[in-house]
Amino acid sequence: MGKMIGRFEVMRPLGRGAHGAVFLARDPQVDRVVAIKLMQDRGDGAPAQDRVLQEARAAGQLRHSGIVTVFDVGEHQRLPYIVCEFIEARTLAQVLSEDGALPAERAVPMMISLLDALQHAHTMGVVHRDLKPANILIDAQDQPRITDFGIAVRCAAESSQGGALVGTPRYMAPEYITEGVVGPQNDVFAAGLVLYEMLFGVPAYSGDNIFQVLHRIANQPIVLPADAAARIDEPLLDALIKATAREPELRFASAAQMGEALKVYAAGRSGTANGAGSAQSTLDFLLRRMSHKSDFPAMSASIRSINRLAISDQSSAAVLANEILKDFALTNKILRLANSAFYRHSDGGRVRTVSRAIVILGFDLTRDLAISLVLFEHIRDQRHAALLKDEFLRATFGGLLARELASQTGDPQQEEIFVCAMFRNLGRLLSCYYFRDEAEMVARIVAMEHCDEDMAAQRVLGVSYRELGIGVARSWGFPGSILDSMTAIPAGRVSSPRSRGDHLRLYSACANALVEASERSGGTAQPADMAAILKTFGEALGLNGKQAATALDASVNGLKELVQALGLQRDSSAFLRAVTPGAEVPSAPDAQAQAAGGVAPLPPETEAGDAARDTDAVNIGAILQGGIQDIGQALIDDTPPADVLRIIAEIVYRALSVQRVLLCVRNAAGDSLVARHGFGTQVDQLMSTFRVPLGGGDIFDRIVAGNLDVLVSDAAVEKIRKHLPDWHRERFGAASFLLLPMRVGQRAVGLIYADVERANSLSISPEHLSLLRTLRDQARLAVKQSLPR
Length: 789
Hints:
By secondary structure, the protein is α+β, with helices and mostly antiparallel strands. Among the domains are: about 5-85, 2-Layer Sandwich (Phosphorylase Kinase, domain 1), CATH 3.30.200.20; about 90-270, Orthogonal Bundle (Transferase(Phosphotransferase), domain 1); about 620-785, GAF domain (Beta-Lactamase). The chain is about 50% helix and about 10% strand. The protein contains 35 helices and 17 strands. Helix 16 packs across helix 23 and helix 17 crosses helix 23.
């Protein structure tokens, strides 16, 4: 290396980090002592080095007392270097190692200064991406300075960065780990983790290896020490929890916002304003309390991922089906509901796959059912099981009733009305689970003072149930139509709706009023109650008494069907007993009939979990036979080939209980078989990887060319492994797999691929192989129909 780096005279080494070595040097042009970071050769090539220099130049535009100034950049022996201001200081990592956890009165002012510096960088369009104690210098006056902007990026760059993760794993944001999203909130999350470490003296996340750390950040909220409440004031803990929220929408929106919260804390104030500001602050606090319940993040992620799906195109139908199939209990319940009398379709046949449910019932209804069932599965809790079950059934009954009212009045948007009515009382349902003590207090106030429930909730929680429900629904990504439908209606007779939002809100409110009336009167509505409801809503909705009574009767029957499909017991629900007095809910179909439909029976009142999959394994033949019948009918009905192929892929996936299934077809160029439909682990990421070049000579090509049905029991055997393509060895992690090629004449047109993670764990009987070949032949017919004539 010599004694010079560029024009700079090296004086001595200062240290070495993950990205390179740091030297103390002198700039002879201005006679200034500087620090030079010489980046190490990571084998990334010239483009990566150019990017480092470009990003360092961007950081060089920053001028702030809390940021170590970048003076110059250049190359030395083809390695980039960054010249920075030299500061006599310890790193925050050294401070914590030597001094231990910092008291709040010392940590908070430091963090406020750091956040001010971060906000300056973000305003200038620069994200640090590697904020951590080792990159924060603390001088003798306890003033912090952020250094090492060497991997910073412009905010204006693409929000999703491809390639390997960049930064220190322990301080990466969840959205960066899972989706590659880069933005200012990455730095906010890292600042929250740094604050945690300052206050408690240990990192928020740790693990035996990098992958364990990344998994925990992506899937688990921070865990506060047992004595955290005794050591740290609640407002500061509240700010810490918000800064480290896994969901970006629950996190501080900016470094400035986090800094303001800490300034309020430091000034000894409560951190809330009057009026709307107080309600929003309280709502934020309640959402953060909920986010620390073990199941709320998982439930939120499931509902949010379903809500993100676009409506009614081919790719979204496939993604929705795969999202549902990740949860086997949810899959079984969706199929049971799809086959119940209330949802039964016109052709009278059984629905045996989620893909077919989407084709027949429609994307919107299947999605709405999935969201409601995800909510139901996650709110079940043994301590409050009966109350929560009643709230869920009450909400679902409201949705059924709203849809029937819309049917009676001829409104075409019945499914949208269903989901709006169901979630109208979301705030009350969630409060019963997450804020049980407060919910009981609200109920006591309502009973004693005969006041409005939302007014009582406002007194106890600081926000009404309605405001809480809207806040959660907004964080889950519900569309504006549902949010609008959850708002309150004025007292007295309502006027005709002036917008679609008004329309949905009136149906939702009318249905819920009828639910309350029917609960008091055994599934009907007393004449006085019905008259009052019609006086309020009748003219605005064009609804008369006969229509309302018919809708109520149909909805009670629909509720019975739903309870049967979910395997619930009538005697276990006070609400169900109230609205179906003296009636027996039909017993669940027998196991043999359900197996023939491809739906494994679930014991009533139990968590299904993996049991659904185990039962499916016992009924492989029944699922395959039922699937063959479905596909035969679909081919007769001229179902689009893409739908047929997607349904076949799902049948194979459910029947074999494998890690994943991919169905491949010949591409337009005719030179490869490429994956078009898939279910299982990481199929969204792996679909684009699975490509079999025809004539390429790997094991897949040889099997397709020979038109051989092959089960590879152990892919690690050398004679197999050496013929596997690199993309399969590196990306799929499959030790055993099944290949069923498809040919039309002498031409290879497709391939069914199924794999499992462990060797010798995929076995197929001759009987089941025969059924799989029949399905393969049906897939070949569908592919043939799609070929140019």
